[in-house]
Amino acid sequence: MNPNPPRLRYIEALTLGYLGCLALVLLWRRGAAGPGWWAWLAIDGAIAAAILRGTRVAGTSTGGLRAWFADLYPLPLFILLYRQSEALNRAFFAEPLDPAFFALEARLFGFQPSLAFAGRFPATVLAEVLYAAYFAFYPLILGFGAWVIARDREDGRRFLGTLATVFYACYACFLVFPVVGPRILDLGGLSPQALAGLGLTAVTPMPATSQAGPFARLMSVIYEVFEGAGGAFPSSHVAVSCLVLREAFVRGLALRWPLAVLVVLLCLATVYGRYHYAGDVVAGLLVFWPLARGAEILQAAYGHRWARPRG
Q: Is the pLDDT of residue 309 over 80?
């Protein structure tokens, strides 16, 4: 047992550092953040105070509801911090970068995959399979996080630290590179001049048959209530799902191959539902492994530093 446990675990130190960076950006670019910037600053301060106050509980408790909360509170926190990214994603660019992404997709593929996919395959059954896979992201993260904590607390804390690293890195990209995704067309986020310049004036809405099923309607509600505009690049859904899949293979779980199929379907669903450009998916696939490996190295170094005898 570590005789000198860290006063702050890796995930808490990382979260406090991220909150500190958010506070600096809020103060520096408060004009771009909008009139409610002070509310987010207060919320971030309250979160930081709660983390500091609860550190002792997290480090010493091994059972009971307080210990469970101390270990699992990052999961709902990820949702809140994702929503905050929308409030700050115009800090560096006044307008979303979607026109550049539409142009890049056209150069790379010769067409717009996110606009053509559902139109080419509008069947309700296929759409429901893909929307169900996309929805599975939310219970997957919550369920896997709770399962690894229940199975092995230290291993679970390591996984949550890695998960936080991937999420925060994606959120930081959202702040710097605001990309709404192809659904910006449905939101009316591009001017007629921009649409004409990109050759998108004739784009039609999603086929009615692809939106007829319960999972399609459920995802519509989730995006209306929880999802923010400007968090498409890279796809955090893809990066985090790949992280969970990697963890499943590392642990040799029996469900790893069905989970691999689910992740493939989720990647397809991000484009099918016009949530992401194909490039967002590629970026998510490319960044998850170096972020995960980097988080493991950082956590090991952080733990080693605090394990040294104090002189």
A: no
Burial of residue 282 (CB within 10 Å: 0-12, 13-18, 19+) is middle
Cβ partners under 8 Å of residue 144, min gap 6: 159, 244, 247, 248
- Tens digit of each residue's pLDDT (9 = 90 or more) over 212-237: 999 999 999 988 877 767 789 999 99
Tell me how crowded residue 242 is: count the other CB atoms within 10 A of its CB.
23
Residue given tokens 């995930």 in the structure block = 11
Alpha-carbon distance 58 to 89, whole Å? 32
Residue 129 vs residues 126, 133, 166, 262: alpha-carbon distances, Å: 5, 6, 26, 10
Token pair 């293979």: residue: 249
Long-range contact pairs involving 3-9 (C-beta distance under 8 Å, separation at least 24)? 3/309, 4/306, 4/307, 4/308, 4/309, 4/310, 5/59, 5/306, 6/59, 6/302, 6/303, 6/306, 7/55, 7/59, 7/306, 8/55, 9/55, 9/58, 9/59, 9/157, 9/161
Contact 138, 56 (CB under 8 A): no
Checking phi first, is residue 308 left (phi over 0); if not, alpha (psi -120 to 50) or beta?
beta
Closest CA to 79 of 282, 240, 294, 258: 240
> Rounded to two decimals, what is the model's pTM?
0.90
DSSP letter at 230? T
Q: How many helices and strands in the chain, by DSSP H and E?
A: 15, 0
pLDDT in tens, 245-259: 999 999 999 999 999
Contact criterion met (CB below 8 Å) for 191 and 201: no
DSSP 29: T
Residue 23 tokens read as 């506070």
